[in-house]
Amino acid sequence: MQYLAGIILAGVLAVAGVSPVLADSLRTGAAAPAFTVTTLDGRVLGSASLQGKVVLLHFWATWCPPCQAEMPALERFYQQHHDEGLEIIAVSVEDRSDEAKVRAAAAAYTYPLALISNATVSGYGRIWRLPLTFVIDRAGVLRKSDWSGEQPISATSLDEYVLPYLKTPVTN
After folding, report:
1. For the purposes of burial, counting CB atoms within 10 Å of the CB of 28, is it exposed (0-12), middle (13-18) or buried (19 or more)?
2. Rounded to an integer, what distance in angstroms lies between the CA atom of residue 114 and that of residue 118?
3. Those residues with Cβ within 8 angstroms of residue 87's Cβ, 6 or more apart along the chain or in another chain
4. 5-59 pLDDT tens trace
5. Catalytic annotation, residues
6. No. of helices (H) and no. of strands (E), the chain
């Protein structure tokens, strides 16, 4: 029933021209909202420390089948392009009580993972559908927002939406 209510609300908001996912300040082509996460291994990463890198800020959960389907493609892309300046930060929306499940799922991946309770990501709006990914270029500009399950992450979509920004040189 909650799922149906969410779909109806999204439809009503879409007709009204309001996005239920995106914060008012979240516009493609504008500066990406600041964020900070403390990863499962204790590192603190954020928009300021990642300046000059292409960042995928990815929201997921262990109980989300589409999320689980995308994670291996993200890992392959990360392995191929991390040395070129790619950073992927996967933020699980699960509660701290589920940390053991998140850690078990995270063991298969080398990119940084965090719990949402250890993240400051409020500028990205209410995360109510998963998976959800944002692409931020080397200059800190939001290049793709609201990348969600209807348009799954794959090798092809990563090449299309992320690779062009990796080819852009770092400017200081």
Report:
1. middle
2. 7
3. 45, 50, 53, 54, 55, 56, 111, 112
4. 333 333 333 333 334 444 445 788 899 999 999 999 999 999 999 999 999 999 9
5. 64, 67
6. 5, 7
